[in-house]
Amino acid sequence: MATHKLLLLPGDGIGPEVMAEVQRLIDWLNAQGIAKFETEQGLVGGAAYDAHKVSISEGDMAKATAADAIIFGAVGGPKWDAVPYEVRPEAGLLRLRKDLGLFANLRPAVCYPALADASSLKREAVEGLDIMIVRELTGGVYFGEPKTITDLGNGQKRAVDTQVYDTYEIERIGRVAFDLARKRRNKVTSMEKRNVMKSGVLWNEVMTAVHAREYKDVTLEHQLADSGGMNLVKAPKQFDVIVTDNLFGDMLSDIAAMLTGSLGMLPSASLGEVDAKTKKRRSLFEPVHGSAPDIAGKGLANPIAMISSFGMALRYSFDMGELADKVDAAIAAVLASGLRTADIKSEGATAASTTQMGEAILKEL
Amino acid sequence: MATHKLLLLPGDGIGPEVMAEVQRLIDWLNAQGIAKFETEQGLVGGAAYDAHKVSISEGDMAKATAADAIIFGAVGGPKWDAVPYEVRPEAGLLRLRKDLGLFANLRPAVCYPALADASSLKREAVEGLDIMIVRELTGGVYFGEPKTITDLGNGQKRAVDTQVYDTYEIERIGRVAFDLARKRRNKVTSMEKRNVMKSGVLWNEVMTAVHAREYKDVTLEHQLADSGGMNLVKAPKQFDVIVTDNLFGDMLSDIAAMLTGSLGMLPSASLGEVDAKTKKRRSLFEPVHGSAPDIAGKGLANPIAMISSFGMALRYSFDMGELADKVDAAIAAVLASGLRTADIKSEGATAASTTQMGEAILKEL
Ligand SMILES: CC(C)[C@H](C(=O)O)[C@@H](O)C(=O)O
Ligand SMILES: CC(C)[C@H](C(=O)O)[C@@H](O)C(=O)O
Fold it and tell me: Does A226 have pLDDT greater than 90?
């Protein structure tokens, strides 16, 4: 059996608590002989800043580069609101994405039937919702240069951010979206603002070309990002796969996550290109939720998004799709049994701590 | 009685139909001696392209500059999807905003009680919703340079858009937001992505400074634009005034509009700076909805957003707040009476065409 090297980066806030439940699952898989994972731990975000005054150390970057997959918790919190911009907690995550070339961010937004009522949307609008947001993650305004604040004198400053996209960046994220759609409901909706942004014009043009050249069997639809956002709120079930740039993806995937009423449940995968020789791709898996400093350390956090992110690692990095299905089924079964962490509590449900939820999922497995 | 000069720019799609209902209202106000409006008409968007191969002619720009207020319908449609970028329908609207210095875009998102059930959100989440989005409208990625597509050879192109904000631009839009909050529930939420964008860092810094210097009596809160979007979907009633940049404002105001279930009802105002001498400000008023080419020319369009936009003109450009209140009350009364255009139809309601709705509001006045 192949040994897989995992780097665990719990980060800040509830990160360590939810990561502990993944560690429990890994230990069990190893003990049962179901898989062979070697894990290392590292520091990222505020935790790295407190230890080394950086958002991630060179040592941990080296571990990240060597790992077969990175399991990432969450970063940030008011404690680090005043640290210099270059070493703010988020910088560690952004560096991992950029330096490891993790250009494809997959964010499924799924409404668990047991939780449909937790959505602020009407049950009929979200019940059965299952969409996949494919967000470009290493380009756009996140990394474009210049990115500066200049003092103009007279009390005036000028801030500049630059949105840049090259053809190949749009092509490769398009292919990820079309490939996923083929395994789903065969429809891709591309979102941009071509009526205002040149990057939107190019985005639209390249998606159209990739589709015409390689994916005629998939339905491609274009929506402006603003009306796309509207449609997401109005009638989300019209979508299958949504592909969009880094910044629109940030907004739209958060909104999609909120629609489901299951924010604490949603995983994400960030993938690099497949290496022609090794057939491997770098990858990082993280929950969609943040570090939730307000509830950190209290055993209140929902570990499902984190465990489910590990499930995505099994599926996308280790070709263990069946095991991933079992993890998903265990989560669904535990929810159906009525167990609930505080964020998803409802009348008649059984309250569970972070640990109790993690243990219940393991037992179900 | 002062004479007010209005430029009517109906534009494309349903624009002319809904504008006709404003014209009807203006004629009546003139005939009754309640006000004295002089109106001119101009072409914008696809209509201008069809006539002159531009998105707005120099002649109409001159009229716009000379007018006391511009009443704008909507632009765009599939008919003009393939026209050159520089003369696409939206360019006319963008030029009006930029050349007239209309930096402050006010977008109220109000949930009419009679329509709460039309929202995809649960009634309790949106009933009574009344928020004001203040969007910066002449800066940011909409107008920053460079804004280019370059051919790199080898089938590769590079698209660049530039987000630029200067201190004074953030200060003046901040003041608009704080001033509005003072007349409302005294709370401003500023949204940006300071964890990723330098313009977000400056935006946050300047808002904080303006608040500390001039508006200590107002509550100021900062949210990241992605979690702000989430909160808008989860619990919109937590907001009073939201102030944000051009692109985030585009997305967030559309989402807020959709929450209300009343997209066909929502007006907007775009205002310039107050002239020190004349005390006047340039202004443009337009519905939040688009040109809806699919229903154009069928008498199906809802004229309420357009009429309500004219109401905002009365309030913000002509100091006729009382008359504006009467227009709002007439709209509410007609809705309460059960009259509905197709977009807001519901069981037991009386169906109305565009014209019937316009006439009913006039009768109510
Ligand atoms: C933490 C932050 C830098 C990040 C982003 O903006 O990408 C987060 O919001 C996300 O969506 O993963
Ligand atoms: C038509 C388009 C250019 C415009 C914008 O993006 O600002 C519209 O979406 C709006 O919100 O007024």
Answer: yes
